[in-house]
Amino acid sequence: EIVLTQSPDTLSLSPGERATLSCRASQSVSSSFLAWYQQKLGQAPRLLMYGTSVRATDIPDRFSGSGSGTDFTLTISRLEPEDFAVYYCQQYGRSPITFGQGTRLEIK
Amino acid sequence: QVQLVQSGTQVKKPGASVKVSCKASGYTFTNYGISWVRQAPGQGLEWMGWISTSNGYTYYTQKFQGRVTLSTDTSTSTADMELRSLRSDDTAVYYCARDLDIVVATAVDYWGQGTLVTVSS
After folding, report:
1. Across the interface, do B107 and A35 touch by the CB < 8 Å criterion?
2. Which of B38, B21, B47, B27 is nearest to B106 (CA)?
């Protein structure tokens, strides 16, 4: 199975700053079948991006995704207070579908 | 609006079975697959399997093969997940989620609220 390793485990930033979250795959993710989710405490995850760089419905344009092969990035251009949460990447190009372990984005 | 509403919290003893239901509304049920994902307390997300709501085709991760059964009832737009031979490490919140596709498992765009299953003697 494809193992996804996210870095860093925790990212401490201030509102207004730029956040860069990384997701590295143990094998190439075919056709960029890579998604990102945001999860706040006590809530279900929310889809942010799929197909590496396609924003899901109602996701603001401060979120962007990039990458290919084994290296993928989620960028939040200017952090808003509501962006502090845990972020997961997911690959769905090869079964079984797998998730990264998550990056916690916390307020500095 | 799209909604997935799951059944409530359950407490089970080791060795028992649990069934979690997920009722969909606000869209054509048979146009999208349903995935099941679980999250142990304080842990990350774990994908369990997927079902095509149009033909009932299922895919289960190897970890859950033989212990889990996914099913749907298109007349009620409901998807069910049954997990058998429960162990304490099956304690988790179980989510159903709508896939972006109907042919294969993909990313999921709408999630149920989650169902806490506690396995304890």
Report:
1. yes
2. B47
Residues of A in contact with B45 (CB under 8 A): 37, 39, 45, 88, 90, 99, 102
**Token pair for residue B51?**
């079902």
Hey, which residues 53-92 in chain B have their CB within 8 Å of chain A?
59, 61-62
Percent helix, strand, coil in chain B (nearest 5)?
5, 50, 45
Strands A86-91 and A34-39 come out as antiparallel
> Which tens digit of pLDDT belongs to each residue from B24-76?
999 999 999 999 999 999 999 999 999 999 999 999 999 999 999 999 999 99
Per DSSP, B7 falls in state: -
End-to-end CA distance of chain B: 40
Nearest-by-Cβ selection for A47 from B50, B105, B107: B107
Tokens 């808003």 map to which residue?
A80
pLDDT value for A79: 97
- The residues, ordered by sequence, that sit 6+ positions from A23 with a Cβ below 8 Å of its Cβ are A4, A5, A6, A34, A36, A67, A71, A72, A73, A74, A89, A100
Q: B45, A33: Cβ pair inside 8 Å? A: no
